[in-house]
Amino acid sequence: ELAQRMAERAVDVIKFFMKQGQMLKPGDVIDADTAELVAEEFGHTVKRVAESDVEEGLFNVEDKAEDLKPRPPVVTIMGHVDHGKTSLLDAIRHANVVSGEAGGITQHIGAYQVEQGGQTITFIDTPGHAAFTAMRARGAEATDIAILVVAADDSVMPQTIESINHAKAAGVPIIVAINKIDKPEADANKVRTELLQHEVFVESMGGEVLDVEVSAVKGTNLDRLLEAVLLQSEVLELKANPDRSAEGVVIEAKLDRGRGSVATVLVQAGTLHTGDIIVAGNEWGRVRALVNDRGEQLKEAPPSMPVEILGLQGTPLAGDRIAVVESEARAREISEYRQRLAREKSVARQAGQRGSLEQMMSQLQDTGLKEFPLIVKGDVQGSIEAIAGALDKLGTDEVRARIVHSGAGAITESDVSLAETSEAAIIGFNVRANKQARDAAEAAGIEIRYYNIIYDLVDDIKAAMSGLLSPER
Ligand code: GDP
């Protein structure tokens, strides 16, 4: 790549290294200082470009308070499998889509909008926390409110707890939808009581979390659920400046045979227009068409609106951020820069750079953080409680272990993505990681530690934590 950028032959560059006594093959990585030396040796002038130069001004444009206008809330539905997430998403969509409207055929684009009492709400159409966490792992905060679906005939289950922890880790407020209330065996109060144990305090239990009893199948109380969303949204005072260049996040993207790369983007600030030049993650393009969740072509998309974008050169990833730039040249420059960065990162990852307990410790030390985040999976609830108790005792005024998530069962992909977003280590006690989780951990460079003796586990964490106790400064 260095040869290519200097417009030299790779073999000449390799020869040069050979003369210096270094045997390299194409694809080997050299550091920036060496690259600079070589480039100068070949008669080129080197200009070091920092990320800030290329990416400057792309995101986080400061908006003046008076330019901010209210925007619709963006909602994700989470909860245990079979508790009715998909049914609820479908029911809400069908009950609140303006029927008989031209082009009123609903399209699945990954998110949709409904009206309630003249106000708009955006729903992310992929239920569950997997997509939510995958997005967060890429640095995207797309969700304002999480609806936690709990089936009243089943109550709190492992994925209910995971969802609670994911929402909490993201700082996203929860609204509880107690579903399947039509069933004779439904027991809403049991749900409320069990939620207490996971620090979700609903209003009738003296807390502040809104809860609504619903039936997705019968369509009961869907309007009350949407009212609760709007109420919560009012508290959050969600605002964005619609009168500037757009920023957003990719919700899903695919390569469509007829239409090329198609990405569904949630506009988060500004207004996106056809003809805009955008960068989306490592890709770029000129917006050829904007299509909403009803298949209608739009000229523009304001904040909180999900739209399909046509015209991208490549297919971005879910969770990639998008921004409008002033010219094609700049879009190309940024996307090339990012693609190079991504390649370098993947090389660095293969070299296994982060994720080990020790490295995590030294990272924590650098940031001065004195909490040690952990995800603990065990064979039975009893052993997890014993581990939590033992770790709790290890804590001092200076440093303590914080269990971000724990549960009985194998280590899954969802644990790995939560580890990635919360920068936690993963510990398996008498359990292993499944194949997908192992692959995900490897790709993300996250180490999973296995134990079958609590003493060993506690000892390791203790050693790691004492490394965190900084010498007196
Ligand atoms: P998900 O896995 O959370 O997306 O759950 P689904 O939406 O697929 O629902 C799982 C099952 O529960 C399906 O058979 C639904 O028909 C059923 N179900 C969902 N909501 C309700 C409800 O409100 N009442 C009843 N009786 N069944 C429901």
UniProtKB/TrEMBL annotation:
This is Translation initiation factor IF-2. Coiled coil: none annotated. One of its GO terms (cellular component) is cytosol. The keyword Aminoacyl-tRNA synthetase does not apply. Belongs to the TRAFAC class translation factor GTPase superfamily. Classic translation factor GTPase family. IF-2 subfamily. Keywords: Cytoplasm, GTP-binding, Initiation factor, Nucleotide-binding, Protein biosynthesis. The chain holds residues 290 to 762 of 861 of the full protein. Its main location: cytoplasm. It is found in: Cytoplasm. Residues 70-239 form the Tr-type G domain. The gene is infB. GTP binds at residues 79-86, 125-129, 179-182.
